[in-house]
Amino acid sequence: MELNGTSRVNQKGVLEIGGCAVDDLAKTYGTPLIIYDVAQIRERIQAYRNAFQFFQVPYALAYASKAFSCKAMCRLADDEAMWLDVVSGGELYTALAANFPAGRIYMHGNNKTSDELEYAVSSGIHHIVIDNFDEINRLVEILDKHNTAMQIVLRVTPGVDAHTHEFITTGTQDSKFGFDLFSGQADQAVNVVLRQPRLTLIGLHMHIGSQIFEAEGFHVASERMAELFSRTKVNCDTLEWFNMGGGLGIRYTKEDHLPPLEEAVKGLIEGAKRAFERVGLALPKLIVEPGRSIVAEAGTTIYRVGSRKSVPNVRDYIAIDGGMTDNPRLALYGAVYEASIANRMLDEPTMTVSVAGKCCESGDMILWDALLAQPQPGDLLAVSCTGAYNYSMASNYNRLPRPAVVFVERGEARLVIRRETYADVCTLDL
Ligand SMILES: *Cc1c(COP(=O)(O)O)cnc(C)c1O
């Protein structure tokens, strides 16, 4: 496992994050434990800001809270003057419960329920990102009922799909999200919205994928969006935002080769600048809404090693006290991680071993064939880069209580989500 952020190995050979030794944290808070390196989160946010400030373009930096949402994370985002992208009533509730200002929140979702739309409207959030025609009707009905108006942004599918190292420019119209650009749906949606006096169209949105390594997909998509922006602007003088989505990749393993975040963001801005120059428009205000690239690398999960199993001539397994319940990403899409024995960081990793979770499910794996320092029962296993889409996807499968989450910064640890108890697991049962 590579050390990132404030991660160090202390004199006892123990992994230390944010100035806190993880064996102490494990003793205090138990395992599995998700540790967030707050300084690293702040650094990633600053990298985005530096890129925008370099070009001196107006922008809003939003945190895609679905990557990891809890009150403390919302407060941290507010502390850093970010905007917040929520995709459900639950995420909106979390943000408001953390006193995140509604004026810097907007809502996404491909099937926002009427309740969620009502909640968004009555909370006074900045805008709603409309995803489909049904939603336009549903929102207008609600606005009629409350005799009020709402700012909206249209989510457009520009036909560019940019997952990981590749991107595909056509044939990816087939998405459950947004108004399709090629078939003219996006233009049609603009026309429908402009005829609705209760809706103020303030921007256009795209999101072309996640864990993206190359800027090129963004460039192609930005060109298509700039053309739509230019057509739309003719009849709409309230149009002022271009939301480029999230999706920038992070380094999960040493096989992931990426430019520094600030450079990657500069690449996106440059692409947008060029695209709008091409259509003869001033650059609109840009929104980016990263999730993973803000929190993924800052998160480390600490597990306690329990059982071992050796299948002769096949594979060695160790099992840890968590699994797909706190990290379903391998089971879901084959995600690859790196790990170390956190209490013996100086020992040579000499054993190839696969790390299994404790759930009754063969797919419940955390790592296949990792190189580790002879793991023994009782050791602490650190899995790096678990800050995004881990806790937020956690479940109570097998009625496992979900882990605790701590924020560490400058030698201090703060429990931000307590570990669930068995009683919590039964708390909804009637
Ligand atoms: C998931 C998502 C994001 C965040 O994506 P990351 O890959 O975590 O940066 C941003 N915008 C939309 C619309 C999303 O669905």
Automatic annotation (TrEMBL):
<feature type="binding site">
    <location>
        <position position="292"/>
    </location>
    <ligand>
        <name>substrate</name>
    </ligand>
</feature>
<feature type="binding site">
    <location>
        <position position="329"/>
    </location>
    <ligand>
        <name>substrate</name>
    </ligand>
</feature>
<feature type="binding site">
    <location>
        <begin position="289"/>
        <end position="292"/>
    </location>
    <ligand>
        <name>pyridoxal 5'-phosphate</name>
    </ligand>
</feature>
<feature type="domain" description="Orn/DAP/Arg decarboxylase 2 N-terminal">
    <location>
        <begin position="39"/>
        <end position="296"/>
    </location>
</feature>
<dbReference type="GO" id="GO:0030170">
    <property type="term" value="F:pyridoxal phosphate binding"/>
</dbReference>
<feature type="binding site">
    <location>
        <position position="333"/>
    </location>
    <ligand>
        <name>substrate</name>
    </ligand>
</feature>
<feature type="binding site">
    <location>
        <position position="389"/>
    </location>
    <ligand>
        <name>substrate</name>
    </ligand>
</feature>
<keyword id="KW-0457">Lysine biosynthesis</keyword>
<dbReference type="InterPro" id="IPR009006">
    <property type="entry name" value="Ala_racemase/Decarboxylase_C"/>
</dbReference>
<dbReference type="InterPro" id="IPR002986">
    <property type="entry name" value="DAP_deCOOHase_LysA"/>
</dbReference>
<dbReference type="InterPro" id="IPR029066">
    <property type="entry name" value="PLP-binding_barrel"/>
</dbReference>
<comment type="subunit">
    <text>Homodimer.</text>
</comment>
<feature type="modified residue" description="N6-(pyridoxal phosphate)lysine">
    <location>
        <position position="66"/>
    </location>
</feature>
<keyword id="KW-0210">Decarboxylase</keyword>
<feature type="binding site">
    <location>
        <position position="361"/>
    </location>
    <ligand>
        <name>substrate</name>
    </ligand>
</feature>
<keyword id="KW-0456">Lyase</keyword>
<protein>
    <recommendedName>
        <fullName>Diaminopimelate decarboxylase</fullName>
        <ecNumber>4.1.1.20</ecNumber>
    </recommendedName>
</protein>
<dbReference type="GO" id="GO:0008836">
    <property type="term" value="F:diaminopimelate decarboxylase activity"/>
</dbReference>
<comment type="pathway">
    <text>Amino-acid biosynthesis; L-lysine biosynthesis via DAP pathway; L-lysine from DL-2,6-diaminopimelate: step 1/1.</text>
</comment>
<keyword id="KW-0028">Amino-acid biosynthesis</keyword>
<comment type="similarity">
    <text>Belongs to the Orn/Lys/Arg decarboxylase class-II family. LysA subfamily.</text>
</comment>
<comment type="function">
    <text>Specifically catalyzes the decarboxylation of meso-diaminopimelate (meso-DAP) to L-lysine.</text>
</comment>
<keyword id="KW-0663">Pyridoxal phosphate</keyword>
<dbReference type="InterPro" id="IPR022644">
    <property type="entry name" value="De-COase2_N"/>
</dbReference>
<dbReference type="InterPro" id="IPR000183">
    <property type="entry name" value="Orn/DAP/Arg_de-COase"/>
</dbReference>
<feature type="active site" description="Proton donor">
    <location>
        <position position="360"/>
    </location>
</feature>
<feature type="binding site">
    <location>
        <position position="389"/>
    </location>
    <ligand>
        <name>pyridoxal 5'-phosphate</name>
    </ligand>
</feature>
<dbReference type="Pfam" id="PF02784">
    <property type="entry name" value="Orn_Arg_deC_N"/>
</dbReference>
<feature type="binding site">
    <location>
        <position position="247"/>
    </location>
    <ligand>
        <name>pyridoxal 5'-phosphate</name>
    </ligand>
</feature>
<dbReference type="GO" id="GO:0009089">
    <property type="term" value="P:lysine biosynthetic process via diaminopimelate"/>
</dbReference>
